[in-house]
Structures are given as C-alpha cells and as structure tokens.
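Appendix B. One record, verbatim.
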Amino acid sequence: MNISISNGYETFNDGYLRYNSDGSIDLMGLGTYGRSSVLAGQDRKVFIDSYASEEDIPEKYKDLPRHGRYTEPQNHFNHLPDGPDLT
C-alpha cells in the first residue's frame, strides 16, 4: 500500500494498525533502518498515533493491514556472529 504516514518528523510510505489488549489501536509507520544503523536494511516500525476505537481512526488509514502484538513485523538477527560475546 502506498500511503503517506507522518509522525511530524518523518514520513513513511507504509504502515499498519496494531490492535492492543486494552482495545486501543496504534498506527505504526513502516520503513527500514538506514546505512548508519547496526540494523541497516531491516524493518523499522515507528509509533505514529493511538486511537481509542476503530471509529476514531482517520478514514485514510482504515484500510491498512491489521496486526496484533504477536503478528506484527519482526526483525531478524542472523547478521550477528555465532561466536561468544566479547567480555
């Protein structure tokens, strides 16, 4: 989906709605970490806003994919070395 989602500092072209156990709904922006991050190229999710109910969600966001806490996009860590941690 190509949509503009902004938190006032950054704009994201993708996002999803995260349904919480208290009934609230969070609008999350999706992007990727930049080259300067240790997570470069991996999914980046950013909290944008929260709504008390589906009726409060702005119309332009109502068709975004819906996720729960355990089904939202996850980062992977297979880029880390297999050796022991440095001490």
